[in-house]
Amino acid sequence: TLLIATEKQPGGTVADVMRDPAPVLSKSASVDEAAKLLHDDRAVMIAEDGKFLGVVTRVDVLNHLYLKGRI
Fold first, then answer.
1. CB proximity list for 45: less than 8 A, separation 6 or greater
2. pTM of structure
3. How far is the C-alpha of 27 from the C-alpha of 31, rounded, in Å?
4. What is the mean pLDDT of residues 18-42?
């Protein structure tokens, strides 16, 4: 469900706390590239041709590296 705020919210809105611009990688970027961006950010947006595809988080990268035996 998509909620759109039409009035100022008492606690603020996500626009008040979001990072703009957010870090973005293409789906062909390496896990190492994502890890470098995740050093300073908790999540990286994945987009291709201007279309949002998903999000990669620190936990996603750590799980991948663990399963590959790199940590």
1. 22, 23, 24, 25, 52, 54, 55
2. 0.72
3. 10
4. 93
